[in-house]
Amino acid sequence: MMKKWSLKSLYLGFDDPKYSEDLNQLDQLILEINSQSVDFDNYDQKERKLVKYLENEMLLEALIDKLYHFASLTSSVESTNQEANKMVNLLQTKLTQLTKISTLFTNWMKDYPNLEEDIAHNDFLKEHQFYLNEVKDHAGHLLSTELEVMLAKLRQTGSSSWGRLQSLLTSTLDVEYDGKIITLSEVRNLATDKDPEVRKKAYEAELNAYKKIEDSVAFALNSIKGEVNTVSKARNFDSPLAEALNKSRMKSETLEAMQSAVKEYYGIFRKYLQRKAELLGHKNGLPFYDLFAPIGKNDTSFTIEEANAYILKNFKTFSNSLHDLAKRAFDEEWVDYTPRKGKRGGAFCANMHVIKESRVMTNFTGSFSDMITLSHELGHAYHGEAIFKESVLNSSYTMPVAETASTFCETIVNNAAIKDVTTKEEKIFLLESSLQDYTQVVVDIMSRFIFEKSVFEGREKTVFDAKELKELMLDAQKQTYGDGLDENLLHPYMWICKPHYYSGGLSYYNFPYTYGLLFAKGLYAKYLEDKEAFVKIYDDLLAATGQMQVEEVAALAGIDVTKKEFWVSSLELLKKDIELFLELTE
């Protein structure tokens, strides 16, 4: 079987005449869209103008979907492919030509008279009602056209540049470890090593290396958060958090209910961490460097064919449609499996609405964890399959619901594996691997939220030096991990290595992960209550994620995410796994 994906559904190559044709068509379309700027001076024939703009937006999405994905997907597995890299940059530059018209349109929508009336008698507009109402809402937070264009340009030398600096400094940082010079990602990967001495020495080497860049990265963080505070205020948001919630399509009550429930479950996570500390011979809680230490034993490895077969078998227990989607992905070469030189690390799934297909990239080496990653990414492909039935303008979903299908699929395969293993040591290994993930997404994410909130609030009055940022991080970790971790062996530099803090356009890139995990777990519990009826509810829910607030999406499954009770019920499921681990390791 092929271990690499095929992109022939998009183009045969950059020299494919169709690629050049589509690139030329994109240029023509950008000119046509920009020529519509005169339409937005008044509201004469407003309905015709609105329909025309949306139709052009759909054509633009289709072209960009093909052109950009072909270039970016090629680049992701061939990082030295100059043609692919140039094309990614070229397409990004071309799209900046639409900033002005996009702002004009959004501002025009702000005062659009009788929008609901036009929507009521026009089926095309009715189909895009949520999209239009969201544009109208965003218009209330938009600056003038001139200021928006200026801000887009200034960001390139402001927050975007500071973000690139953080990326450059962390990716080129030399770490002295065991007499050798290695990279930051290499030393951080040693956190999962079986040898306790390796883990400890790697942690010490990592912390020591940060001293070389702490002042520069602190300057970058201060600059980005200061910019966001300024822009957020100018856009009439109460705070950067209010803006992040708006972008997430989430009410503040939902976040408060979820975080209130999470705080009540710190205790059970601390019990897990204390037990892990005992198993590893620590007396004062778990040192940070042993958070990812393996517990138990699992030497099982999978070929690609075996992993595919295991996933298909277990996906079929949920539904034929999930099984068939995964089979199609395997048969039609949607997956790029194995690591090779020039291929980026990690894993992702790209949904391509224009061809109604997805592509999955993994770095599969045969471990159980690799199989779980593959099932996770196929969940994203299944979400794509549901969204493809909707208009492309109704297909953009937010971070909190983005991890729903992926976590759900991961849960299906992981639960099956825990049942299938034959030894106690294997069961402990699989269970504890899940608990590591839960701890990161529930406890560590909360510490990141607390830290970021402190930085935003403090930046209103002061500039933090590296020492103060370290103190804020330690305080956040103590609040969440408590006595589960050894307070003398925490990680004061977690703000340097996490890229999530360094975006001017996406703040609080943390709480959506907690939402994704707990919402998916809650859905899985609903599935267990009535397996047959749930499948259609689930598919409809995924299809609706691009055109509803997260609260409305949840309501389709009879869930009220503004109520603490739901989050408690999801956390109870995680608690059961922790209690099983405690029982197995007594």
Write the layout of secondary structure elements.
Layout: H1 17-35, H2 46-77, H3 82-96, H4 99-110, H5 115-120, H6 123-127, H7 129-139, H8 145-157, H9 159-171, E1 175-177, E2 180-182, H10 184-189, H11 196-210, H12 214-234, H13 240-248, H14 252-264, H15 266-279, H16 304-316, H17 320-331, E3 335-336, E4 348-352, E5 357-361, H18 368-387, H19 399-402, H20 404-420, H21 424-459, H22 466-481, H23 494-497, H24 511-529, H25 531-544, H26 550-555, H27 564-584
Parallel strand pairs: 3-5
Antiparallel strand pairs: 1-2, 4-5
Helix pairs in contact: 1-2, 2-3, 4-7, 4-8, 8-9, 9-12, 14-27, 15-27, 16-17, 16-20, 17-18, 18-20, 18-25, 20-21, 20-24, 21-22, 21-24, 21-27, 24-25, 24-27
